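Now for one protein, fold included:
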Amino acid sequence: MRRPPSLAIMLAGALGFAALSACQVELRRVNVREERLRAIDRAQAEQALELTVVNEDGSITLNSTRPEHLVAHLRHHLVLGSVDLIHDQLFADAAKQIYSDQRLDSHDAVHWLIANQRDVLLLLNRMTNGVSSPDVVSQPMSNGWRLRIAPHLERAFRFTTLDMVREDGQFKLLLIS
């Protein structure tokens, strides 16, 4: 099967040899641009991988430096049923303290999420883009954010609000209501 001529050869035939050099320069520019885009894609992929770090001992560390990260981690680990991971790394200490003050096990909060998984996931799915979604109203709180379903969509959801706080540079779940 015959290979089609390259763009540079076609142009060189039409414009002469001088055009060949110009075409080669332009093709090099295109290749450099493509390589830069690939490097950006690799960097973004590496950054995404850093949101979930598998430590040398096999344990997992979840990084939630933005509200969107917390929403994504909650969605993912709620589906997996990762009770301990959600409890230990995604729940705010303040939320755990509320349970402790009432002499309740704070793991019950994670079990509540799992028992209400369908409705919680509907909320989290809508909030996937976090503060940048037009369907979500975001409000800063003293030490975090409140993400709320936009008023025109509230009737479609059982839960409409997700409160989160920052602890040690990480966003953690405070309340879903």
In short: The chain has two domains: 7-50, 63-176. The mean pLDDT is 81. The longest helix spans residues 17-50.
